[in-house]
Amino acid sequence: MASGLNFDVDSYLKGSPFQARSVFRKGDIPLLDNPHRESRPDSGFVVLVSEEQGQGLSEQVGPAMTFLVKHEKELDRLKLVGVDNMLLDFGVEVGNEIQHSDYLPPDLLVVMARFRMGLVVSTVRFPSG
């Protein structure tokens, strides 16, 4: 996800190599997780980095690293056009285990830090049976 308080997402996406999975605009009122109906303070978009969603985190690290290296110049350009927040979100299915841990290699963390990119690990547990 890339967003910014002064980011013209529509103008950016017209010439962008990224195919936005979703777009949000400053002033929009998100319907989910927004009981007070507060409007968005920023504009931005979400792009799918890898089709490996739902796999373990370790299976997603390689495609994420490839994406970051491949789009290095474009990620730098985002900062110049008003993006002040970038997040890499790993979607991970968790089973019924009592404890679960994953590993992020230093190379990935270094590349993310270069772009001042935050990390989110979204977990989902599917009901058994």
Q: What oligomerization state is this entry in? A: single chain
Distance between the termini: 34 Å
| Poorly predicted runs of 5 or more residues | none
Mean pLDDT: 88
Q: Give the radius of gyration.
A: 16 Å
What helical percentage do the residues reach?
25-40%
By secondary-structure content and strand pairing, the structural class works out as alpha+beta
Listing every helix as H and every strand as E from the N terminus to the C terminus, the arrangement reads EHEEHHEHE
**Whole-number total of structural domains:** 1
Taken as a percent bin, the fraction of beta residues is 15-25%
* Adjacency order of strands in the biggest sheet: 2-3-1-4-5
Number of strands: 5
- Can you count the helices? 4
List the helices and strands and how they pair.
Layout: E1 2-4, H1 9-14, E2 20-24, E3 43-47, H2 57-70, H3 72-80, E4 85-94, H4 106-114, E5 117-125
Parallel strand pairs: 4-5
Antiparallel strand pairs: 1-3, 1-4, 2-3
Helix pairs in contact: 2-4
Structure description:
Strands 2-3-1-4-5 form a five-stranded mixed β-sheet. It has 129 residues and is of the alpha+beta class. The mean pLDDT is 88. It has one domain. Helices cover 29% and strands 25% of the residues. It contains four helices and five strands, in the order E-H-E-E-H-H-E-H-E. Helix 4 links the parallel strand 4 and strand 5.
Describe the structure concisely.
The chain is an alpha+beta fold.
